[in-house]
Automatic annotation (TrEMBL):
Family the UniProt entry places it in: Belongs to the ATP phosphoribosyltransferase family. Short subfamily.
Gene3D superfamilies noted in UniProt: Periplasmic binding protein-like II
MF GO annotations: ATP phosphoribosyltransferase activity
PANTHER family reported in the protein's UniProt record: ATP PHOSPHORIBOSYLTRANSFERASE (PTHR21403:SF8), ATP PHOSPHORIBOSYLTRANSFERASE ATP-PRTASE (PTHR21403)
Annotated protein name in UniProt: ATP phosphoribosyltransferase
Assembly: Heteromultimer composed of HisG and HisZ subunits.
Record remark: domains: Lacks the C-terminal regulatory region which is replaced by HisZ.
EC number: 2.4.2.17
Domain ATP phosphoribosyltransferase catalytic intervals: 54-209
Entries under Pfam families matching the protein: HisG
């Protein structure tokens, strides 16, 4: 039986910390940080294979069993609602998912009085659920990036987006008016792999749990 474990690692802003985390439990994926166009990294001595995946695609690779494990932001998990085992909060990549609007509109605005909103976001599912739970009718406009631009050019009045330093909101004259969720990075596991490779995967989960405290 092939005992190699496949891990989906997201490229982008959580790549380096993901690799640092695995190194702390003795899995050295540092070759992935080299400037390269390779997408599969084999580590036969460690019985590990790592895939470089776009952050939003990690749940898909893990759900389909192309990867046994993956690392992904909670924002992506909330949006996609895939059938995955999510055993661990890895406690990095902290940010918040918020509703924001132009500072001028925020002055005197009361989110508890909203009845209808027009919102641009990369997270239509989360936004829909958030407003539905408040009984607010929401017209959602799906965007893929530069979300803060939408209210500045009249595409929407408000946005749902991630905030970490707050600098992007500030530089574009926007204010946070509601927090939807606190976001961190999570370990996700394919449900079948959890059974067929229980010992190996349990070892990784326990190892990570021990160092995360
Ligand atoms: N300021 C931030 N903005 C966006 N994501 C952040 C921020 N801080 C932490 N994160 C976390 O980093 C994860 C990966 O973000 P990254 O920007 O690399 O990918 P992405 O642009 O969301 O995905 P994709 O490239 O597939 O569209 C996010 O899903 C989120 O959990
Ligand atoms: O609070 P801050 O530290 O300013 O970070 C928040 C910004 O970072 C993310 O955008 P990203 O850099 O991923 O670019 P994008 O426009 O392509 O989504 C997010 O969508 C916000 O725009």
């Amino acid at each position: 039986m092939n005992s190699t474990l496949t891990i989906a690692i997201p490229k982008g802003r959580i790549l380096t910390e993901s690799i640092q985390l695995f190194s702390r439990i003795g899995i050295d994926l540092s070759g992935m940080l080299d400037d390269s166009r390779k997408l599969i990294f084999d580590y036969p001595d460690q019985l590990v294979r790592a895939l470089i995946v776009r952050a939003t695609d990690v749940p898909t690779y893990v759900e389909h069993g192309c990867a046994d494990l993956g690392i992904v932001g909670k924002d992506t998990l909330l949006e996609q609602d895939k059938d995955l085992y999510e055993p661990l909060d890895l406690k990095f990549g902290y940010c918040r998912m918020v509703v924001a609007e132009p500072a001028g509109l925020a002055t005197g605005d009361d989110p508890t009085r909203w009845t209808h909103v027009r919102v641009a976001t990369k997270y239509p599912h989360v936004a829909e659920q958030h407003f539905a739970a408040k009984g607010v009718q929401a017209e959602i406009i799906k965007l893929y990036g530069s979300i803060e631009l939408a209210p500045l050019v009249g595409l929407s009045e408000r946005i749902v987006d991630l905030v970490s330093t707050g600098e992007t909101l500030r530089q574009n004259g926007l204010c946070e008016v509601e927090t939807i969720a606190e976001i961190t990075t999570r370990l996700v596991v394919n449900r079948a792999s959890l059974k067929t490779r229980h010992q190996r995967i349990r070892g990784i989960i326990d190892g990570l749990e021990a160092i995360l405290g």
